[in-house]
Amino acid sequence: MKVKRNFIGEKNLTRKVAAYRLAMEVVRSGNEGSIKKTVTAIRKLAKFAKEELEMKNLSKLQSEHMKAFAEHLRNEVGDADISKAHAANIISCINRVFDHYGRDDLKLSAKEEGLNRGKRYYNIDRSVSNQLHEQFTDYLSQKFIQTGDTRYEALRIQVEMERMFGLRFKESALHDLKGIHRKDDMLDVVKGTKGSQPREVPILSDKGYELLNYAKDFKNEYGFNRSLIPDDMKFSQWQNFAYGVIRDFNERFDCDYHFHGERHTYAQERYLELTGFDAPVRSGFINGSYLQVMSEYYGITLEEAKELDKEARKIISEELGHHRIDVTCFYLGK
Q1: Scanning 36, 153, 168, 211, which has its CA 20 to 30 A from the CA of 220?
Q2: If you compute the radius of gyration of the chain from its CA atoms, what whole number of angstroms results?
Q3: From the CB of residue 305, how many other CB atoms can be counted at a distance below 10 Å?
Q4: Quick check: is 278 in a domain?
Q5: In a domain, 4, yes or no
Q6: Is 292 in the same domain as 320?
Q7: Quick one: which of 38, 124, 113, 23 has its CA closest to 72?
């Protein structure tokens, strides 16, 4: 019978000494190699939690936080910051920590997250369907109407911005609705970006401007002076609220909605706009077969189809805030 322990954790597990103490407790065999790998994994998760989630104690982690961590690992693999084998080792070691504390709800599957060892596991569609998106945003609207709590409407606007502009959760939450360049149809993304690197994303339709105008009017009407986060809340508090809403929604309707899926939808829609074809992960033409279909449809050479695909992926990569087109394989398939 598994002994359930209280997962209190060290206050700062980014520190090697603190991570080592926890690893020593978890790796009961005392194997030095396993301890070192576990220390690396613990520090990796703690650094992500501290910098991206503003969370100092891992005891506050929820399943949605771990989904975001998996996304973070996928991005690092795609950017060639770490190998996929390294990512799989991190997940394995972190799962051992959670198993020790009886937190099966926080475990990740390397295979399901596209991070298993061996063949690169790109072709998983993680986008949010129109039906699920509408179901979740309708849920938020109803909560706002029923309770009068403006946080639900602010969160709904944030979700729409993620889908419309391909923003990360943190980017949409911290956006101040400034930096809208109507002349060039571009939107500045400055706060909450990966590596604090600002970028511009395109405003592709009137619906984009309508959303931004509504968001600005909402902020003014309800006294949101900084961003879509209420003035009396820190980002970490807002994130906990948002993830709690998702958890309640998923449990109530037996769904699997996650914020980062909106970015996948954005990437796939952009690929369709730029190439005229559904992304491989959506069309089912995978393992390069989509290039042959593209070539035959347009009456161009296979090399020209590859160039069209490459150029589209490059644009999408930049719009998502990445610097390598390889990472688009996780969004679009290959």
Answers
A1: 168
A2: 21
A3: 21
A4: yes
A5: no
A6: yes
A7: 113
Q: Are the CB atoms for 173 and 245 separated by under 8 Å?
A: no
C-alpha to C-alpha distance for 79 and 325, rounded to whole angstroms:
8
What SS3 class is residue 149?
coil
Kindly state whether residues 198 and 288 are assigned to the same domain: no
Domain end, chosen from 73, 91, 106, is at: 106
**Same-domain pairing of 251 and 280:** no
Rounded to 5 degrees, what are φ and ψ at 150? -65, -15
Nearest to 280 by CA among 268, 270, 265: 268
DSSP 176-208: -S--EETTTTEEEE-TT-GGG--EEEE--SHHH
Ranges of the chain with pLDDT below 50: 1-6
Helices 63-78/235-253 angle, 10° precision: 110
Helix, strand, coil percent values for the chain (each to nearest 5): 60, 5, 35
Report d(CA 268, CA 245) in Å as an integer. Answer: 26
184 φ/ψ sector (left φ>0, alpha ψ -120 to 50, else beta): alpha
Domain assignment of residue 9, yes or no: no
Phi and psi based region of residue 47 (left: phi greater than 0; alpha: psi -120 to 50; beta: remaining)? alpha
Same domain, 252 and 285: no
Which residues on neighbouring strands pair with residue 201, listed in sequence order? 187
Look at residues 211, 244, 259 and tell me which one is the last residue of a structural domain: 259
Q: What is the pLDDT of residue 214?
A: 98
Residues 187 and 161 in one domain: yes
pTM of the shown model: 0.82
**Do residues 87 and 144 both lie within one domain?**
no
What's the structural domain count of the chain? 3
284 and 308 share one domain = yes
Residue 3 has what pLDDT? 43
Q: What's the token pair of residue 157?
A: 């606007």
